[in-house]
Amino acid sequence: FCLIFIFLCSFYVESKWTRKHKIYRDVQKISTKEKKNVLFIVADDLRTSLHCYGDQIVKSPNIDQLASKSAVFQNAFAQQAVCAPSRTSFLTSRRPDTTKLYDFGSYWRVHAGNYSTLPQYFKENGYITMSVGKVFHPGISSNHTDDYPYSWSIPPYHPSAEKYENAKTCRGSDGKLHANLVCPVAVSQVPEGTLPDIQSTEEAIWLLKAAKEKGSPFFLAVGYHKPHIPLRYPQEFLKLYPLEEVTLAPDPEIPEGLPAVAYNPWTDIRKREDVKALNISFPYGPIPKDFQLLIRQSYFAAVSYLDSQVGQLLDNLDKLGLAKNTVVVFTSDHGWSLGEHGEWAKYSNFDVATGVPLMFYVPNITAPFPQPGKRTFPFIDPFDHVPGKIPPGKGLVSSIVVELVDLFPTIAELAGLNVPPPCPKTSFDIQLCTEGISIVDLFNASSDVEAIAYSQYPRPADHPQWNSDLPHLRDIRIMGYSIRSCDYRYTVWVEFNPLNYTANFLNVYAGELYLLETDPNQDNNLYNHTEFVNLIKEFL
Ligand SMILES: *[C@@H]1O[C@H](CO)[C@@H](O)[C@H](O)[C@H]1NC(C)=O
Ligand SMILES: *[C@@H]1O[C@H](CO)[C@@H](O)[C@H](O)[C@H]1NC(C)=O
Ligand SMILES: *[C@@H]1O[C@H](CO)[C@@H](O)[C@H](O)[C@H]1NC(C)=O
Ligand SMILES: *[C@@H]1O[C@H](CO)[C@@H](O)[C@H](O)[C@H]1NC(C)=O
Ligand SMILES: *[C@@H]1O[C@H](CO)[C@@H](O)[C@H](O)[C@H]1NC(C)=O
Ligand SMILES: *[C@@H]1O[C@H](CO)[C@@H](O)[C@H](O)[C@H]1NC(C)=O
Ligand SMILES: *[C@@H]1O[C@H](CO)[C@@H](O)[C@H](O)[C@H]1NC(C)=O
C-alpha cells in the first residue's frame, strides 16, 4: 500500500516520464579496456514462454543454454506492445512519447527528431554494423531502408522467402493451400524450399565468418520473424507438443472488471482464413476452445523452431572462436497474449503483451571464459533433449523491473563504449542521449533496488472497434499509460490529442490496478476498490 502511494505520487507529480532508481552498486565495474563484438538477437512477438523463464510446456533448450551463461532479467518490459513503435523506441533509446511513433506511419528522423540509433552509435565508434532480417520495422517507419546507411555499414539483408509468409502455403484439412494462422509446413514443399528464419541464420553465420576474417569489431543484429503470425514453421516441431498436453490459458475468460478500452479485439488473427472460417463474433469472441489449443500448440512449436535457429547461430559463433570476445543479447520486441483475459495478439498494456525475455551473455562476466577444447554453445537438438537438463537460472538472474529503452546504454557499456548521456527533459534537438539507463549494475544487484517500467498503448475509442488494435496517429483519441513495479500494474486511459501529442490526465476514461502478489495474471481490477479509489483521486 505504502509503495503504491509513493509510486503514484512520483508518476504524476514528481517525474512523469523519468525513472528513479536507487541503485546499490555492489557489482565490480565491468572491464572496458577491450572492444567486444555484439551479437544482438531480437525475436518477433516472443513473450516469456521459455523454459528458462519457468514455462513448463515450452521446449527451448538452446535459449536456456544461453540463459544459463547470461544475466537474465525476469521482469523486462517493452514501451509499447507493437512492432514498429517498440523497435524504434529501443533502437533509439527513447520512449514513444519522444519518437512520436505510435503507429507504423512515419520515420522518426523527419517526424520527431534526428535521433541516433544503437547500431549507428557502434558504426560511428569503428564497428562494422550489419542487419539480418527484421531489426528495424521495415517500411516507412525506417524510411524503407532499415535506416541504412545511418545505422548500418552494409545494406541490410532480408530473406527472400519472407514474401511467402502471408501467401497461401498452409495445407488445410480440405487438402488445399490457404493463408492460415496455424501453418505447420513441410519445408521442402514451400516456395524456394526454405523459410525466412532459416535463411537469416545462414546469412548471419556467413557474416560472422566474414567479419572475423576482416578482424574489426562487429555489431551483428539478427531479427528473427517467429513466433510472429502466421504460425508458419517446419511441421516436425509439432511433435514436441502433443495436443493432449497443451492447456488453455489459466484465465481464458474476459474478466468482469476489464475496461472496454483496455481490451484489444485481435483483428489481425481474424483475417487469417482458418480463423475467418470460424465466424467468431466481433469484438469479444470467444474463439472455440479446441481452436485456442491449436493456436497455443503452434505458437509453442514456432518458439521451439526459433530456439533451433538461435541454437545454430550460437553454435557457429562458438565454433568460430568468437564466444570469448562477443557479447550476446537476446530479447523480443514485445510479448503476445495467448488467450489470457480472452485476448489474443499484442496491442495491450498487460504483462503478457509488454513482457519480454531479456538476457546478456558477457564472456568472463556472466560465464567463465571459454576453455580450450570446451564448447560454450553446442547446438542442442530439441528432439533429443531431456527437459530440465539445463537448470534454469544458473547464470545471474535478476527480478528487477527493467525496460527495453535500457538496451542501448547497457549494450554500449558491455561492449566498452561510453554510455550515452541521459536525455534532458526536452530532447528533440539532441541526437545522442538515452531515456533508459545502463542496467549493467543490476546484473547482480541486491533485491532492494526499486524500479518501475513504463508502457503505453493508444486507442481510437473507449470501446473496441475495427481499428482499436492499431489506430493511425490521426485516429488516436485515448492513451493508456501504464506503470509496472515489482508488485503492481497500474494503468490509466486518458484523453489524447494526436495533433499536439498531448495527454490530458484530467480526463480519465478508465483505470486498472492489479496487485501482482495475489493476481499475477492481472484479472482482478481493483481500480474502483474503495480502499484505493480515494488514494488514486488525490493524484488526478
Ligand atoms: C554476483 O553475486 C554472487 C553472490 O553474491 C557473487 O558470488 C558473484 O561474484 C557476483 N557476480 C558478479 C558478476 O558480480
Ligand atoms: C541526421 O543524422 C545523420 C546521422 O547522424 C546525419 O548524417 C544527418 O546529416 C542528420 N540530418 C539532419 C537533417 O540533421
Ligand atoms: C529517406 O529515403 C529517401 C529515398 O531514398 C531519401 O531521399 C531521404 O533522404 C531519406 N530520408 C532521410 C531523412 O534520410
Ligand atoms: C468504475 O467506476 C466507474 C464510474 O463509477 C464505472 O463507469 C466503471 O464501470 C467502474 N469500473 C469497474 C471496473 O467496475
Ligand atoms: C460460418 O458462416 C458461413 C456462412 O454464413 C457458413 O457457411 C459456415 O458453415 C459457418 N461456419 C461455422 C463454423 O459456423
Ligand atoms: C576475467 O575476470 C577476472 C575477474 O573475475 C579478472 O581478474 C580478469 O582480468 C578478467 N580477464 C580479462 C581478460 O578481462
Ligand atoms: C493541445 O490541444 C488541445 C486541443 O486543442 C488543447 O486543449 C491543449 O491545451 C493543447 N496542449 C498543448 C500542450 O498545447
Q: What is the element layout, followed by pairings?
A:
Blueprint: H1 2-14, E1 37-43, H2 61-68, E2 71-77, H3 83-92, H4 96-99, H5 108-111, H6 118-124, E3 128-133, E4 170-171, E5 177-178, E6 182-185, H7 196-214, E7 218-223, E8 231-234, H8 267-270, H9 273-276, H10 289-319, E9 326-332, E10 337-338, E11 344-345, H11 351-354, E12 355-361, E13 396-403, H12 407-415, E14 453-459, E15 478-484, E16 488-497, E17 502-515, H13 530-537
Parallel strand pairs: 1-7, 1-9, 2-13, 3-7, 6-8
Antiparallel strand pairs: 2-12, 4-5, 9-12, 10-11, 14-15, 15-16, 16-17
Helix pairs in contact: 2-10, 7-10
The structure holds 2-acetamido-2-deoxy-beta-D-glucopyranose (7 copies).
Residues 27-28, 365, 444 line the site of one 2-acetamido-2-deoxy-beta-D-glucopyranose.
Q: Mean pLDDT across all residues, rounded?
A: 91
Would you count the extended β strands for me? 17
Low-confidence parts: 1-32
Largest sheet descriptor: 7 strands, mixed
Strand line-up across the major sheet? 3-7-1-9-12-2-13
| CATH topology description | Alkaline Phosphatase, subunit A
The structural domain count equals 1
Please compute the radius of gyration using only Cα atoms. 22 Å
Q: Between the first and last Cα atoms, what is the distance in angstroms?
A: 18 Å
Q: Total helix count?
A: 13
Task: Identify every distinct bound molecule in the structure, by name, code or SMILES.
Answer: 2-acetamido-2-deoxy-beta-D-glucopyranose
Q: From the helix content, strand content and strand pairing, which structural class follows?
A: alpha/beta
Chain oligomer state: single chain
Cα shape:
globular
**Percentage of residues in strands:** 15-25%
Pfam family, one: Sulfatase
InterPro entries: Alkaline_phosphatase_core_sf, IDS, Sulfatase_CS, Sulfatase_N
Cofactor: Ca(2+)
Enzyme class: hydrolase
